[in-house]
């Protein structure tokens, strides 16, 4: 484990390093009277995703060598680290999009193939089918699963009832704004009721205003569904705002530099990023990042 430089034990209590699991999430998130979500009472697994001895090289370029990590269920985990350290590769490997050279990945003891996994790509323009209306993009995974039309409609209705979606779902993707298209992508990912949702820089192609609103939207979805989410971000503010835990990675061959617990109440609006504790946590993550990104 490579955990260093505890800045302030009081501020950063509960931080864990590689291989550790931490106290975990709610069976469903609870809303306090003031609208903030309270931490979970019980019910979710402390070790849900188990990554053991994972190795991946591209030619001579070793990205992961004997990489081990465990992550809890029902948490939002952001992945942050130096350029090219393997953030996308990590989620591609553990979501089954990319084969690995060695190691194993289990979800509560199940293989990747036995687990309901969804993925939201950075480039929604390429991810959505342009010839399908938005509603049919959302429907598509259910069709692939072989559900009858009636069952598809019921599932979509159930999903949409959970969220306030101000989008004309009869519109084609090109008729929607970037944020609306990415919302459709996220709904499509959620329609199968995934156990884990991977998001690779989902908002990086959006303008800042849309990004802020999508950060709020994703939090609503997370608080409503309690789905375990792993989010790759290039933006440290976003990585801290949208996480119960920030997974900080080193340069290649990539290890866990540190896992920082973000013990702030949900939801976290734009004002949350000015909160002194938020600023402390972000500044701690930045120090770890700078240490790991420094040329050696
Ligand atoms: N399909 C591939 N074929 C060859 N090399 C690859 C492939 N995918 C990733 N790599 C290499 O693996 C390393 C890690 O790439 P990856 O995209 O996972 O990093 P990242 O941390 O997500 O990068 P960035 O910060 O630029 O988004 C890089 O050196 C990249 O060139």
Number of helices: 8
Strand content: 15-25%
Bound small molecules, by name, code or SMILES, are: adenosine-5'-triphosphate
Overall structural class, as computed from helix and strand content, comes to alpha/beta
Provide the CATH architecture of the largest domain: 3-Layer(aba) Sandwich
Q: In CATH's first tier, which class of the largest domain applies?
A: Alpha Beta
Family: Belongs to the ABC transporter superfamily.
GO molecular function: ATP binding
Keywords: ATP-binding, Nucleotide-binding, Transport
Protein name: NitT/TauT family transport system ATP-binding protein
Describe the fold and architecture:
Residues 1-44 are annotated as: Disordered. Belongs to the ABC transporter superfamily. This is NitT/TauT family transport system ATP-binding protein. Residues 49-276 form the ABC transporter domain. Pfam families: ABC_tran. The chain has 296 residues and is an alpha/beta fold. The chain folds into two domains: 1-115 and 199-209 and 219-296, Rossmann fold, CATH 3.40.50.300; 123-194, no CATH class. 31% of the residues lie in helices and 21% in strands. It contains eight helices and eleven strands. It has helices spanning 87-94, 124-127, 134-144, 149-161, 178-190, 208-225, 236-241, 276-293; strands at 30-31, 37-38, 49-58, 61-71, 76-80, 102-107, 117-120, 196-200, 228-232, 245-249, 256-261. Strands 7-8-9-5-10-11 form a six-stranded mixed sheet, with helices on both faces. A three-stranded antiparallel sheet has the order 4-3-6, covered by helices on one side. Mean pLDDT is 85; it is low at 1-41. Bound molecules: adenosine-5'-triphosphate. Residues 58, 61, 63, 83-89 line the site of adenosine-5'-triphosphate.
